[in-house]
Amino acid sequence: MPAILTPSPSPRSRRTLAELQTRILRNLGLSGTNKVSAADLLDWLNDAQDEIARLSGWFRGSYQGNVTAVTAEYDLPAAPAARFLAIEEVYVSDEPVAYLPFDQLQQYYRRFRDQTAATSRWWSTRGGSSIYLHPAP
Question: How far is the C-alpha of 19 from the C-alpha of 122, rounded, in Å?
C-alpha cells in the first residue's frame, strides 16, 4: 500500500507523519518502546484516513476520460491532487460497468486482453494505477 501520509507537511494536514506517530505513541504510553513499529503506525493511520474519507465523502470527486476503440487498459491520473482512495463506479457510454477483481478477470477470462471490441461489462484495477475494461470498448 503506498504511503498516503508523507513525512513532509501537506496542505491537507496540519501535522507531519513524524508528529502523528510521536503523538500516538505518547497517547498510548508507548513512547520509547519498540512494541509498535513505524510501519504499523503508518498502516493504521492510512486505514483511519481511508475510513474517515469513506464515511464522510471527504476527497470525493469524479474523473472523466475518453475511451478508445479496442483499448482495454487506461491509466489513472498520477497527479497528487487526483489520487484515488477508491473507485466507486465506472460508466462507459453512460452505462454502468460492474466491478470484477483482477484475479477473477484473469481466472475466468484468461485471454481477456485478446478480446475483440464489444460493450464493456466489467472493470478491474491492478496496482492502483490503471483501470481495465472487459471486453474492450
Answer: 42
